[in-house]
Amino acid sequence: MHTATVPAPSRPKNFSAQQTIDPIHFTCDAPDAKTVFLCGDFNDWDPDAHPMKRMPDGTWQSKVQLNPGEHHYWFLVDGKPKLDPHAHGKAHDIENHRVSRVTVDYV
Fold first, then answer.
1. How confident is the model over 31-82, as pLDDT tens digits?
2. CA 18 from chain center: how many Å?
3. What is the homologous superfamily of the domain 20-104 according to CATH?
4. Residues 6+ apart with CB under 8 A from 60
């Protein structure tokens, strides 16, 4: 913790630096889809946990706070899994399904 040596009237005498975690932005290009969900190891692959929002340009978006580390996911587009072509990479889950990979590293 840092202690201010010359406190300003509008600032507290003690303060600490805190890490803020920005959400990860996921975008799925599926302009003709009726529904898109984000499923991953971060939500136990539960499609109801992260329904995606249709944007005016036809993409679907969702923001999710993720812990640091590697995460696996896919988009569920009208009930069918779709890999993310813009993912950090591809991987296989424990059942050997191909999944998208994102690595989160907060510095």
1. 999 999 999 999 999 999 999 999 999 999 999 999 999 999 999 999 999 9
2. 20
3. Immunoglobulins (2.60.40.10)
4. 27, 28, 30, 33, 36, 52, 53, 54, 75
pTM of the model: 0.77
| Per-domain residue ranges of the chain | 20-104
